[in-house]
Write a structure and sequence with these properties.
cell membrane; globular; 14 helices; ATP binding; alpha/beta; disordered N terminus; 359 residues
Length: 359
């Protein structure tokens, strides 16, 4: 490595440390909104029990953005559905742990009890708005319906005014026209804005965004992400952002949870992850981001694929794809542990257990 690169990396690391210190100070002033502790979800199928999520733990604070990243099949959407109480039952079932929202364990609530939380306390934006909106109901009425469910004392005229206000809030031009439009009459970006308006209509304290820009073109993607971040800043809503796009993570996230095959493998602040990633999978994800500075003949890719739930390897689930794997990785699954005693940076990898790694 050249002296110039070393100098640049050192400067980036210094800046990242200052950003991380600021983020941690802000986190210390914020209240914990969501506390997911040791969550485990299993799919009970004809072929046996398949572990979809194993011992997942993280916290979210008021007004912060947590990005949940990983390849398809890593358990990101299953985590979101667990929090929303929308797991397909059967075959999915929460078999352990808790999901505490403002002190209430959502995992212990019945389906009827969860309805009081969905929309009012937790909102969700799905990947494809066309399949999430009712095709035979006008956009304004769909927003109004959610408002009336959680505010039964409100009359329809007042609910209509509130729905129109939400349409204006998310930056839709000609809001009165969109209010009267059916989903098929709107563009993809407009439909996604309607979804955001629906999700925020009752001002939930937590907004879950499950790859909200997947079906949109690049220009509209940027607008939607800016809108979500503006809503977070103005309304104080905590945002869980599920995404594949590490560029989006670097721009929007305060904290990052890296998942692999249903396991949490690394959890830390965004600035720390991008300048000091520790888990080999996290390093692989970041190295997969094309660089504007380096000219390469071939982009980096992590070899292999995420294993199917019925084919999970023994030991660490990432070891078949890991360039550093040793015998201990093939024999035992590592637990998430603080890195050098830092509870704000946790990793599940045997490399940071000197007793096991040195054997």
């Amino acid at each position: 490595m050249s002296e110039t690169n070393v100098s640049v990396n050192a400067e980036l690391r210094t800046v990242a440390e200052k950003i991380t210190e600021h983020e941690l100070e802000a986190a210390g002033r914020s209240e914990v909104l969501l506390d997911v502790d040791d969550l485990s979800v299993t799919l009970f199928t004809e072929d046996g029990e398949l572990p979809a999520i194993r011992s997942l733990s993280f916290v979210m604070r008021t007004g912060e953005t947590l990005a949940v990243v990983g390849e398809s099949g890593c358990g990101k959407s299953m985590t979101a559905l667990s929090i929303m109480g929308l797991l397909p039952q059967p075959p999915a079932k929460i078999v352990g742990g808790s999901i505490r929202l403002e002190g209430t364990d959502l995992a212990q609530l019945s389906r009827d009890e969860m309805r009081a939380y969905r929309g009012s306390k937790i909102g969700m934006i799905f990947q494809e708005p066309m399949t999430s909106l009712n095709p035979v109901m006008r956009a304004g009425r769909q927003i109004r319906e959610g408002i009336l469910v959680h505010n039964p004392q409100m009359d329809k005229k007042e609910a209509d005014e509130r729905a129109l206000e939400m349409i204006r809030l998310v930056g839709i031009p000609a809001p009165e026209k969109v209010f009267r439009s059916y989903p098929h009459e709107l563009s993809g970006g407009m439909r996604q804005r309607v979804m955001i308006a629906m999700a925020l209509a009752c001002q939930p304290s937590l907004l879950i965004c499950d790859e909200p820009t997947t079906a949109l073109d690049v220009t509209i993607q940027a607008q939607i992400l800016q809108l979500i971040d503006r809503m977070r800043a103005e309304l104080g809503t905590a945002v869980m952002l599920i995404t594949h796009d590490m560029g989006v993570v670097s721009e929007m996230a305060d904290w990052v949870a890296v998942m692999y095959a249903g396991h949490l493998v690394e959890y830390t602040t965004a600035s720390e992850l991008f300048t000091n990633p520790k888990h080999p999978y996290s390093i692989g994800l970041i190295n997969s981001i094309p660089s504007m500075d380096d000219v390469v003949d071939k982009l980096f890719a992590i070899p292999g694929n995420v294993p199917m739930l019925d084919e999970l390897p023994h030991g660490c689930p990432f070891h078949p794809r890991c360039p550093y794997a040793r015998d201990v990785c093939r024999q035992e699954c590592p637990s998430v542990a603080a890195l050098d005693g830092d509870e704000n940076h946790t990793v599940a990898c045997w490399m940071f257990d000197q007793t096991k790694w040195g054997e």
